[in-house]
Amino acid sequence: MAKIWEFYENLDEIVYVSDADSFELIYMNKKALEIYGFSSIEEISGKKCYEVLHNSKYPCTNSIGEQPKPGYFKEWQDYNPALDKDYAVKCTIVTEEGRRCRMIIAVDMTVEGHEGSAYDRQDDSMMSYSFMLHEGLRIALAASSPEKSIRILLGYLGQMLGCEEVYIYEADSDGGFLNTYNWREEETGTGKNPPQKLPEKVSDFMRQSFQEQEYIHIKSVQKLGELEPEVCEFMQSKGILAMIAFPLVKNESVIGFYGVNNPQEEFLQHIMFMFQVMGDFINSLFSTRDLVKRLETISFYDQLTGIGNRHAMNEYVREIQADSSIGVVYCDVMGLKRINDNEGHQAGDALIKRACDCLKQAFGEYDLFRMGGDEFLVMCAGITEQELHERTEELVKKMRKNAALMAIGSIWRPCSDGDFKKLLAEADDRMYENKRAYYAAHPGEERRSGGR
C-alpha cells in the first residue's frame, strides 16, 4: 500500500519525512533530492534531517518543540541557511507501521530580483516597493492557513495600494474562470459566498489577452466597448471603469488571474511592481492550499465511503453545543467477515458502500462517520426523539432494500451535556444487544470474528 507522502513525489516543492523521535530521514521527494544533490532515497539512509537539510549539528527548534497532533498542522516561516532561501513550512505527524513520522512541506518564498526593470533606476521607490512587498508577505505568512494567507494578502494590497477591489479568479474544468477570492474596499469579504463565474465571452477575452501579452491594463472600459461590446457591458454592470490583471501560470498554462479594479493613478507604479512579483507567491500558496486540502481529506475522511472518520468525529464532538438535543445511531455491518472470506475484499467493500448509502439516504443531512472496519456512527444534533425514531425505521427499510444488514443501536437525549463517551457507549451497547437478538433469532448464521 502506498505511503501517504508518496502522493507528493512529483510535487514541485520540497517534501521530506523524518522519524519524529530519532530525526532520521525516511523520505525526500524528487524536488528535495534534486535541490540537495541526491539521486536516490538510498543516499539519505541513516542521515539526520537537520544535518542534511540545514547543515547543522543540532535539531532545529521546531523539531524539538511541541509537535502537532496527528491530523493537525503546525506552520512557520523558516530561513534555510544551507540553501539561503526563505520557506513557508507546514508540518504534520503521521503514523506508518507504528512509527511516528514528521512530514514537512516547504514552499520557497524567496522573491527573485527583477534585473533590467524600469524600476531598477528608481532606488528610493524600489526600497519602498520592496518594503511593502516584504511586509505583505510577512503578514500573509503569519496566518494559520493558506486560505487565510491569500485573503490577508488581498486585503493588504487593497489597503496599501488604494484599490477599490482586489481579486483572484481560478480556471475551472470548463475553461472558464471562477472568482474564488475577493477583497473590496467597502466590505471585509469573508469568502463564504459561492464563487461567481465569469460569462463565457469575458473568460474567452481574458484568456486570449493573456496569450497575446504579459498582463492586461485597461485604462478605459468605455473605450473597450468599441472592440468588445459584451465584455464592456459586463464590466460596466459591475462598476468597473479600469482594471489591471496578471495571469497565474502553471506548466505554461493559464490557471487563473489576479488583479485590481479601478486603480488610482498615483498607485499605478506600485501596483505594476507588486503584481509582477506576486504571481509566483500566489501559485505557491495555491499549491500549499491544495496540499492541505488533500491532507485534510486523507486525515478526516474515510477513503472508501467519503464520509468522516474517527478524527472527524472527535472534531465534531468538540463543537456540539451542550444545550442542543442529540441523537446517536451506532451501526455494525453484519456478515462482513464472511463476505470478505468467501467472496473477497472487493465484495466486502461493496457491502460497506451499500451500508453507507443506506445511512446517507436515511440521515443524509446529519453527520456520518465510519468508526472502523464495519462500524458506522450517525450524530444528529438538534433532532427530536420522534424524528430519530422515524429516521431509524427508514434506515431499516433501506437496509432490506439494498441487502446491507446492520445491527443498530440508537439513543436520544434532550441535551448533550458534553458527556459524549457515555452517550456513545450506551448507543454501542444497544447496537450489540440488537446484534445478539438477531443471532439468537438466526442461530445458523455465522457471527463476525471478534464480536461480542
Q: Could you please describe the fold and organization of this structure?
A:
The chain is 41% helix and 23% strand. It is an alpha+beta fold. β10 (243-250) and β11 (253-261) form a beta hairpin. The two termini are 30 Å apart.
What helical percentage do the residues reach?
40-55%
Average residue pLDDT? 85
Overall outline: globular
Structural class: alpha+beta
Strand content: 15-25%
Chain-wise SSE layout:
Blueprint: E1 14-19, E2 25-28, H1 30-35, H2 49-54, H3 61-64, E3 74-80, E4 85-96, E5 99-108, H4 123-141, H5 146-160, E6 165-171, E7 177-184, E8 196-197, H6 200-212, E9 216-218, H7 221-224, H8 229-237, E10 243-250, E11 253-261, H9 268-300, H10 310-319, E12 326-333, H11 336-343, H12 345-363, E13 367-370, E14 375-381, H13 385-402, E15 406-413, H14 420-441
Antiparallel strand pairs: 1-2, 1-5, 3-4, 4-5, 6-7, 6-11, 7-8, 9-10, 10-11, 12-14, 12-15, 13-14
Helix pairs in contact: 4-5, 5-9, 11-12, 12-13
